[in-house]
Amino acid sequence: MSQTPDTISDTKTKDHEATQNHIMLVDTIQHGDVENLKLPVMDKVDKFGAHAKTDPREIKLVRKLDYYIMPILWFMYTFNYLDRNAIVNARLNNLEADLGLQGTQYNTCVSILFVGYMFRISLVMAGFGFAWSLVSLLTFLAHDYSSMMVLRFILGIVEAPFYPGALYIISLFYTRKEIAFRLAILTTGNNFSGSFAGLIAAGVFQLDKKLGLTGWQWLFIIQGVFSALTALMAFWLLPDNPLTTKWLTEEERQLAHNRILIDTTDIQESTSVWSGLRYAATDWRTWAMTLMYNLHVSSLGFQNFIPTVMLGLGYSRNVTLALTCPPFFLAAIIGLIISWTSGRWNERTWHIVICKGIVIIGFIIPLATSNFAARLFSIFLFVGFSFGINNILLGWSSATLGQTNEKKSVALAIINMLGNLSNVYTPYLWPASDSPHYRTAWCASISFAVGVIVVALFMKYSLKARNKRILMNNAEVKNLYVY
């Protein structure tokens, strides 16, 4: 769509005014009465304009946010993962035989869930949390391929709002330097559930034939019940935005709002949702971040087949389930470490590049050897260093595309929606006929990981050039794009 000279001039004028307002606000913070203004003290500012937390009021506020926001999101994400991936472990308890699944029908049941992730449903997260719990619980009623397909598709729809919603809430309350570590905490729900899902399944499978139900049916019932209880708690605990959060004092609300305001690059006045959609859709960085996230999620296709891959190493079902735990536990630890260092140093690109490089080595090993120890070591590499990238990449996207809350929410929804599109097709890279080597899957995963590195480096140099242009136009600007 072409732009007229007048349109371009108006856009430049608005951008200039927004920049000047941001400069005036930062100047007020640095020289004004921050106590009365309810703004954080900015003693130490890095090259991107991000400030270190030295103000006792801000430190106390962030601690309070951590106590209220992170636990409920963590438990919801844990059960989100357990409910979504119960089918992975159920496969080891004769799920395919009980439902009469043949050929690639199991792969289709895995992928159909993620078609639901392509819908942006703007309702209360807690409500959808309860809905997915109910659908997950009712999965025990599946009796054939068709019924499982329907239930998995509905599960995908009602789970869809959670992750972009959680990311959006975190981005409203935490600064650029804080987001990645909070996402890492959230992601440990995914990692720990992946780590202990096998042990939980092994224990639940002992109920096989109790009350006439199979072990995999009990798995869906038990996890669905606990998930529903967590969703009910979320109705009272999840906040909407800093200025309306009931469990913050008036001063804390204003401080929480203002510290995000001064941390936003190229900040602009809030607009309508439709304007946010237009701004997000016409910003090329939205699509670059979407491509990078899509390639990254594509490289995670292994997560739905880890128990199957490990079973191919020659161990029994229970030993296989136990062996799935350590790699995901390692992933949680590494994710926390690299997300913390990314925020501490305010760096994104090299964290992604180095971690993806290690992941690529992990993908190459199964192609090069059938040695048990080497293949087990490779699983630790590609699982351990994959999931922490999610936190950095999505935090980077939020910081880059957060000029308005509306634009940020739409951009994160686009990135999540199209990123998860990869989960529809990646299961077909792992057909049972390729077992136990899965050469096609490993080669594809390597290609996806290389693509992530290329896009990350492209974004680094693009944002670096953008920062230079900003400083050329106004050397007083303190807040720049992070890379």
UniProtKB/TrEMBL annotation:
SUPFAM superfamilies associated with the record: MFS general substrate transporter
Keywords of this entry: Membrane, Transmembrane, Transmembrane helix, Transport
GO cellular component, one term: membrane
InterPro entries, alphabetized: MFS, MFS_trans_sf
Main location (coarse class): membrane
Coiled-coil region list: none
Subcellular location, record wording: Membrane
Signal sequence interval, chain numbering: none
Membrane-traversing stretches: 117-141, 153-174, 180-205, 217-238, 319-338, 350-368, 374-397, 409-430, 442-463
Membrane topology: Multi-pass membrane protein
One Gene Ontology molecular-function label: transmembrane transporter activity
Gene3D superfamilies: MFS general substrate transporter like domains (1.20.1250.20)
Name recorded for this polypeptide: Major facilitator superfamily (MFS) profile domain-containing protein
